[in-house]
Amino acid sequence: MPARVREPADVLTPVPPAAPTAPGRFAGQSVIEELLRQHEDGPQQSRLARALGASPLDANELGWLRAAQAEIVVGDILARLPDGYSVYHSLPIRNTAFWVDHLVVGPGGIFAINSKTHWDRDLAGSLRSIPIGDHAMPYLRDARFESAQITALLAAGMPEASVVQPMIVLVNPHKILLARKPDNVTVIDSTRLRRWLVARPAVFTALQQAALTAVVDDPAIWRTAGQPLTPAHLHARFTALEQRVAAARTRRTTFTVLAAAAAATVLAVVASPLLISAVEYFAAH
């Protein structure tokens, strides 16, 4: 969908952040709900596995855990935006199975943000995908699709609304190495996100921005999201699961260190007589 040309506002009156009453979901909520659902449906961990420090999550669930942690990190960054910005999280996009991780309405525009985490990696990519390991992840395609869907939803309630700008925020990568700048998608690391948003030139008047947040606050434009637990209970269960994963990791590390120490001790006991014999042999000759 082509962007509509809009002249920057000459004077912008600060707008206090609108409370996200209707959408009102916290950062990472959709991912956490899916993680907890998958974990509940999975097999119970045996006592031996727990004792040996096996992770309570399988590889797929660990991916959901890291995704939730990335969204929480980005949510914390967005919470530090100055007055004049409205921030929403985990909004389920109507007529799709997608949700937008974060939606920001500010003086500089409307931004649909996807949070991605691949800590301690250099990320390279093309205009269509970003390869992670052996897989080409369609992050750019998905970001464009989500922003187009949200643009259409907002335009139905406010025809003069600007096009929603898609963003991919990578949480603490070593480097972002793209063949060239992707068309219509901003790819940025999390440490630069707040500064980048605040630096956008103003495109909305105060009245336009207030009208946009009113449209976003309307639950009718979003898909109904099931919420089996209250946010407080979801937070508590997610935190408990994080703690179990961390405790298992600590237990595995402890076993690894102890096993290495035991192996070194056995090696020393076995090698000691041979070493003494070798010394005596060379001393005799």
Can you offer a commentary on this structure?
Helix 1 packs antiparallel against helix 3 (59-78) and helix 1 packs across helix 7. The chain has a 5-stranded mixed sheet. Strands 4-8 form a two-stranded parallel ribbon. The chain contains 7 helices and 9 strands. It has 285 residues and is α/β, with parallel strands linked by helices. Residues 1-22, 119-129 and 131-135 have low confidence and may be disordered. Helices cover 45% and strands 17% of the residues.
Shape: elongated
* Gyration radius, rounded: 26 Å
Instruction: Give me the secondary-structure category.
Output: alpha/beta
| Portion in beta strands | 15-25%
Percent helix among the residues?
40-55%
What can be said about the biggest beta sheet?
5 strands, mixed
Number of strands: 9
Model regions low in confidence, pLDDT < 50 over at least 5 residues? 1-22, 119-129, 131-135
Strand arrangement, largest sheet? 1-2-3-7-9
Ends distance: 88 Å
Give the helix tally: 7
Helix and strand element order: HHHEEEEEEHEEEHHH
Q: Compute the average pLDDT.
A: 76
In short:
The protein has 285 residues and is of the alpha/beta class.
Write the layout of secondary structure elements.
Layout lengths: L28 H13 L5 H5 L7 H20 L7 E7 L6 E8 L2 E9 L4 E4 L4 E3 L2 E3 L1 H19 L7 E7 L3 E4 L7 E4 L3 H6 L7 H11 L14 H54 L1
Helix pairs in contact: 1-3, 1-7
Q: What descriptors fit this protein?
A:
285 residues, alpha/beta, 45% helix, single chain, 17% strand, 7 helices
